[in-house]
């Protein structure tokens, strides 16, 4: 979640020692401003003569000249963030996108109607972006005003990471990376030539995009002669790598139509891409993020692997480092973890990989009989393409496995048996084993190194990174194409289908519902939020075509999970994984670089176990345990040895009855959890507490084993009752577009003739284990159904 706390932190300690604006001239305008030296940014303002009255007295001209490393700049005309008029701007291709904002607290500021902002001059080159703007109705705002004839405090903020949707003035962004204040001497900033400055746009060569007046934050629109190519869609013969920007002078007039357009390159989308292209269809995959592993063009190599193509996404042992630093791989407009890069969740997850069970496809779990009866064929296809391993180091040696014997001494007395879990997927009661992964050759493997790899060899398959699909264009039930932000793929980013073409939505549990809402499909309250967004609203179909009966976003499940933390003298907590990116244990790093073996060939989970539990309501629910050295947040009153801590994450899986809702939280369209799906049924909580208590009871008999969280001053029930709800999140979301509710047994969206969903969101109930294996098996079966369905290309 993005917080916006830093600016207030300094605002409250500001003293009189502020830098003061000075006079300078640029573009023929006499400004009062400051040159801020840390980031090398020029800020300047000029006001109408003090004799001005009425509306003219309430405007000014501003300028920012910004080195390109700064992705966006914000101005606060009241010297602090909350309850003040803010102005945010950033470059997008050759234009400056700008947006007046307002925030009532230290949260994401939202677009603010009132000011009329006009670009007078703008330019973007390889070193700077520059924007001179007229700001009318900008000297007063809700609850405040600026002193236009004194020395008010202005604040600046800068962001070093791009805003989330650069083309959209309403885009969200991360919290600023730096901020500061100055005294703007407005008393010295009034210029008799002010009126003439308003004409500079027409006389400057750098500003083609000026003069369109923008009320309520729409950017000035420009002719279509500039095409920003963030990625080139290619066939496999010329591989797309990372973003390059080029400018062409001819508009793209005839875009390529596709038989199948797949939105999203996660496990669902990549299986789809491979199977559809193998069937001879002309396929385009659009992915909003960029490359991940070295094979996909990724270059994010940890310093200790410098000089290799082993990125942090390739090296399984870097998993725990996914949660700190600049986590650009997570979708910033989703308030739960979601991978926004090729491979989706499979490129950033723990790699735990379970073959589906009979129960996973049962009628009780919501599956139609056509799936229940046939799934083994498709699970076999998956196992063939992507076998699992519970011994990921290619030298055959198990590393960092000290938790295994400790777990044996807890679980054996409970009647558990050891096994190779994926050799008998249906045996999930009182069983434990080494964790199984979808890693191979000591590297993260998954759908990227299998399905995507083969799809890319086919001339009929194309893909584009950095391409954000906003909506699906349709005329009634017929889908006609996909609206994206990639103008290289079609005019204004619109990509058409061939006459019988189809769209496969694989944007994941949060992404797919949002695209449906933006296409006028889903509950009315969600579509109305889209209609209230000035950028998205124009792409909605007419209201008469909204499909509001489908329960998109409802029925979602995620495993509730609770951590237990123990110490035992045999455990190596691996420094709690803290140094793995910057300063790993030298021998382990050297071993991995030499032969991709050792600790770094596996991720942090080491042992998994399952048990069936009866609930107070008479229903059976399964408990899954995932054991790893290290810990999250230990809460104990007693001293403990952090080098000896391990964690058991205990999940409730198949049989969970609680359900929640996901959707978009506001007209800013951020995807969020609207109703938490954990423990809405008290029987789920009671069942999980029962399972946890059984583990704790058995652990008491293991010599030298100490439960440190919850410790002996906290009852288990209190620990669970007070567990922070968001910590119950397991990132295993399913159900938002459940089969039988939103899609039919061919995964066709009810009420459309050619829109299908192939991702975790169609799975109607939680799997017995972590879900990515089920997601890919479902994609195998779904694509077979879709190819067999009449009427397609
Ligand atoms: C931190 C974490 C750890 C996890 N650990 C495990 C684990 O160990 N084992 C396991 O089995 N499961 C795990 N999971 C869950 C698993 O990763 C997901 O169930 C799985 O990735 C879902 O696949 P999907 O294809 O439905 O969606 P995703 O993997 O979410 O893929 C969706 C893709 O669509 C793209 N996209 C989204 N919106 C758009 C758009 N508008 N335009 C274009 N592209 C778009 C995204 O960038 C992404 O690439 C974990 C998940 C997380 C987040
Ligand atoms: C000026 O802005 C305020 C909000 O700050 C708004 O209420 C008012 O309608 C605007 N006036 C004009 C003329 O646009
Ligand atoms: C880039 O833009 C800046 C700001 O307008 C200008 O000072 C600089 O000369 C420009 N550089 C080039 C190479 O055009
Ligand atoms: C499209 O959106 C994606 C995701 O937000 C972004 O990375 C990319 O830069 C955008 N492309 C353009 C051309 O704006
Ligand atoms: C990686 O190696 C290159 C060339 O040897 C060097 O220039 C660079 O500074 C190194 N980067 C890091 C992060 O060590
Ligand atoms: C929409 O479809 C109808 C037939 O169902 C057709 O008559 C109409 O021309 C289509 N509209 C557009 C804009 O394609
Ligand atoms: C903590 O554990 C480590 C690893 O087992 C051990 O080397 C160290 O001596 C322990 N420290 C204390 C104070 O017991
Ligand atoms: C509680 O745990 C602490 C630390 O492990 C231990 O010293 C203490 O004796 C325990 N108290 C009881 C009542 O078990
Ligand atoms: C599709 O929607 C119609 C009308 O709302 C409904 O009658 C039908 O049962 C739905 N089909 C499925 C598979 O949900
Ligand atoms: C549907 C489609 O575009 N098929 C093409 C796949 O690629 C082969 C070889 O390039 C073409 O001959 C097909 O027309």
From TrEMBL:
Keywords, ordered alphabetically: FAD, Flavoprotein, Signal
SUPFAM superfamilies, sorted: CBD9-like, FAD-linked reductases, C-terminal domain, FAD/NAD(P)-binding domain
Domain of life: Eukaryota
Biased composition (Low complexity): 204-250
Pfam families in the cross-refs: CDH-cyt (PF16010), GMC_oxred_C (PF05199), GMC_oxred_N (PF00732)
Domain Glucose-methanol-choline oxidoreductase N-terminal: start-end pairs: 339-362, 508-522
InterPro entries: Cellobiose_DH-like_cyt (IPR015920), DOMON_domain (IPR005018), FAD/NAD-bd_sf (IPR036188), GMC_Oxidoreductase_CD (IPR053208), GMC_OxRdtase_N (IPR000172), GMC_OxRtase_C (IPR007867)
Needed co-factor(s): FAD
Disordered as annotated region, ranges: 204-251
Identification of the protein by name: Cellobiose dehydrogenase
Organism from which the protein derives: Sistotremastrum suecicum HHB10207 ss-3
Source species taxonomy: Eukaryota, Fungi, Dikarya, Basidiomycota, Agaricomycotina
């Amino acid at each position: 979640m993005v917080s916006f706390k830093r600016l207030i932190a300094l605002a409250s300690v500001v003293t009189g020692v502020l830098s003061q604006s000075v006079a300078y001239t640029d573009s023929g305008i006499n400004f009062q401003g400051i040159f801020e030296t840390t980031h090398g940014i020029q800020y300047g303002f000029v006001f109408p003569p003090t004799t001005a009255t009425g509306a003219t007295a309430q405007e000014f001209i501003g300028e920012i000249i910004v080195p390109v490393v700064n992705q966006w700049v914000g101005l606060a005309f009241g010297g602090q963030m909350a309850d003040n008029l803010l102005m945010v701007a950033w470059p997008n291709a050759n234009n400056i996108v700008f947006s007046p904002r307002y925030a009532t607290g230290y949260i994401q500021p939202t677009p603010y109607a009132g000011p009329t902002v006009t670009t007078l001059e703008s330019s973007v080159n390889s070193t700077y972006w520059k924007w001179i703007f007229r700001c009318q109705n900008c000297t007063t705002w809700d609850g405040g005003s600026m002193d236009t004839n004194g020395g008010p405090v202005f604040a600046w903020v800068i962001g070093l990471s791009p805003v989330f949707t650069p083309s959209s003035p309403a885009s969200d962004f991360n919290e600023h990376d730096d901020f500061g204040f100055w005294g703007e001497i407005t008393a010295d900033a009034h210029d008799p030539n002010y009126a003439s400055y308003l004409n500079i746009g027409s006389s400057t060569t750098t500003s083609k995009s000026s003069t369109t007046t923008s009320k309520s934050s729409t950017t000035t629109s420009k002719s279509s002669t500039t095409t920003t190519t963030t990625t080139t869609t290619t066939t496999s013969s010329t591989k797309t790598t990372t973003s390059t920007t080029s400018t062409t002078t001819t508009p793209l007039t005839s875009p390529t139509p596709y038989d199948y357009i797949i939105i999203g390159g996660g496990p669902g989308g990549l299986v789809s891409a491979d199977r559809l292209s193998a069937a001879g269809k002309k396929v385009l995959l659009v992915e909003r993020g960029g490359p991940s592993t070295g094979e996909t063009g990724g270059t994010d190599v940890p310093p200790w692997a410098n000089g290799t193509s082993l990125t942090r996404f390739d090296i399984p042992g870097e998993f725990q480092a996914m949660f700190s630093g600049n986590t650009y791989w997570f979708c910033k407009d989703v308030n739960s973890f979601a991978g926004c890069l090729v491979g989706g969740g499979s490129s950033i997850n723990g790699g735990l990989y379970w073959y589906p069970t009979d129960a996973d496809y049962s009628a009780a779990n919501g599956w139609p009989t056509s799936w229940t009866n046939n799934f083994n064929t498709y699970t076999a296809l998956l196992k063939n393409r992507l076998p699992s391993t519970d011994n990921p180091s290619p030298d055959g040696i198990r590393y960092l496995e000290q938790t295994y014997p400790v777990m044996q001494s807890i679980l054996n007395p409970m009647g558990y048996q050891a096994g190779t879990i994926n050799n008998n997927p249906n045996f999930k009661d009182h069983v434990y084993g080494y964790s199984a992964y979808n890693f191979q050759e000591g590297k993260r493997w998954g759908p990227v190194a299998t399905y995507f790899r083969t799809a890319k060899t086919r001339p009929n398959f194309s893909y584009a990174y950095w391409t954000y699909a906003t909506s699906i264009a349709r005329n009634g039930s017929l889908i006609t194409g996909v609206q994206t932000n990639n103008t290289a793929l079609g005019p204004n980013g619109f990509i058409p289908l061939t006459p019988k073409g189809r769209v496969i939505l694989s944007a994941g549990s949060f992404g797919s519902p949002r695209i449906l809402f933006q296409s006028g499909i889903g509950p009315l309250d969600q579509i109305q939020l889209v209609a209230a967004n000035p950028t998205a609203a124009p792409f909605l179909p007419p209201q008469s075509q909204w499909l509001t009966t489908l329960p998109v976003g409802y029925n979602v499940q995620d495993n509730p999970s609770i951590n237990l933390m123990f110490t035992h003298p045999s455990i190596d907590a691996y420094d709690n994984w803290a140094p793995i990116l910057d300063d790993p244990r030298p021998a382990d790093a050297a071993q991995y670089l030499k032969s991709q073996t050792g600790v770094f060939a596996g991720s942090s989970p080491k042992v998994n176990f399952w048990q069936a539990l009866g609930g107070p309501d008479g229903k059976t629910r399964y408990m899954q345990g995932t054991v790893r050295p290290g810990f999250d947040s230990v809460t104990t009153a007693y001293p403990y040895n952090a080098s000896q801590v391990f964690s058991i994450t205990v999940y409730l899986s198949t049989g969970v009855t609680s359900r929640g809702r996901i959707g978009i939280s506001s007209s800013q369209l951020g995807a969020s959890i609207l109703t938490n799906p954990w423990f809405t049924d008290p029987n789920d909580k009671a069942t999980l507490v029962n399972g946890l208590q059984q583990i704790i009871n058995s652990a008491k008999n293991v010599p030298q084993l100490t439960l440190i969280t919850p410790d002996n001053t906290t009852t288990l029930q209190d620990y669970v009752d007070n567990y922070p709800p968001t910590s119950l999140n397991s990132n295993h979301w399913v159900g938002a577009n459940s089969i039988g509710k939103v899609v039919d047994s061919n995964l066709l969206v009810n009420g459309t003739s050619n829109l299908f969903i192939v991702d975790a969101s169609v799975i109607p109930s939680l799997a017995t284990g972590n879900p990515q294996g089920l997601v890919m098996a479902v994609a195998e079966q779904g694509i077979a159904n879709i190819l067999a369905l009449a009427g397609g290309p």
